[in-house]
Amino acid sequence: MKAVQLQSFEGVKGLKLVNISRPQPGSGEVLIQVKAAGINYAEAEQIHGRYPTFGKELPFVMGFEAAGVVVEVGSGVTQVSVGDSVTALVSSGGYAEYAIAQSQVVIPLPKGINFAEATTIPIQGMTAYTLLKYLVMPVAHHSLLIQAAAGGVGLYLVQIGRLFGIKNIIALASSDEKLELVKTLGAEVVINYSKSGWVEKVRQATNGKGVDVVLQMSSDRIGEESFKLAAPGGRIVLFGSKNYHATLSTEQVRQLIWQNQTLAGFAYPALPPAQVAESLPEFLRLIEEKKLKLFANQSFPLAQAPQAFEALLSRKTMGKVALTP
Question: Residue 290 — very low, low, confident or very high, per pLDDT cuts 50/70/90?
């Protein structure tokens, strides 16, 4: 079968299209014929050696997630059948014509969505839903700041935040087109962070108080400024691969102490299984009831995996970038 391997930590230069043997499902596993595989920012870090490989050694097939059709099941599998359309976190790598997944993490496709859209569910969608449910909603809040609001996770955060009843959602994005989109999805205030004066606009949107909850996806300059925007008694949540190597400055620690703020980290794959089991049906119900829009507007064939990464990193995309065998 065709697959995209990472053969060296040289960025997109390390990605190679190869022919390898089709994997075989073991006990408790299913084999999925991949129709679409999603690309995540964590993988953009991984190809440079800046993100864990979770025990895999070079060369290995890339891809955390995939959507497609079950074509074979291993022994002991009862909840999934051959012919089912599914999406899942995959263990053998999703950038391939076939991929292996543990049956317990396989998600049936909600009606009315395509395979590329389905790749937004296992990581981006569930990250947004569970982050808001467990780290934002228990906190008294009036305002929520979302970085990269037109990205894969950000688009979900805006929509789910609105469904959860958060009224003052402040969305940051890098172009007028992106701002227009997140405005239609429920953001109360939209601000272009690529233009000067954006920090003051956030303060104005909170009447000078600061933001009750800052969702910080990046620890770069935008992240540092967002950190400062937290209100007294507010919460700052670090998540995503762009914070993986972040370090707190003395100034930030002093801010946390003297402003009585809390700092939290979040990684959806590390959630207790009980919370995942509780949240997944709730999240899928929102999709089935068409209360959420799924965005996967750009797809590339496997042979163009480097171009797909370049499109993602250009910040010109909105929503999911997918590969299609």
Answer: very high
Average pLDDT for the chain: 95
Distances in whole angstroms, Cα of residue 283 to Cα of each of 25, 89, 178, 232, 318: 28, 16, 24, 32, 21
Strands 29-39 and 60-61: unpaired
The predicted-structure confidence for 131-147, as pLDDT tens digits, reads as follows 999 999 988 778 999 99
* Paired tokens of 87: 């999406």
* pLDDT of the residue at 28: 96
Selection from 113, 114, 126 nearest residue 152 by Cα:
126
Question: Residue 325: CB partners within 8 Å, gap ≥ 6?
Answer: 2, 34, 35, 37, 96, 97, 301, 302
Tokens standing for residue 85 = 């359309």
> Could you tell me the two tokens for 119?
């790749």
Q: How many CA atoms lie within 13 A of 217 on its CB side?
A: 21
Provide the pLDDT for residue 63.
Answer: 97
| Other CB atoms within 10 Å distance of the CB of residue 275 | 13
**Count of Cβ atoms closer than 10 Å to residue 188 Cβ:** 17
pLDDT in tens, 222-253: 889 999 999 999 999 999 887 888 889 999 99
Q: Which residue has the tokens 């507007």?
A: 297
In the DSSP assignment, the letter for residue 84 is -
- Residue 244 CA to residue 238 CA, distance in Å, equals 9
Longest dimension (CA), the chain: 60
Question: CA end-to-end span of the chain, whole Å?
Answer: 10
CB atoms within 10 A of CB 165: 7
Contacts of 43 (CB under 8 A, 6+ apart): 51, 62, 63, 64, 309
Per DSSP, the three-state class of 271 is: coil
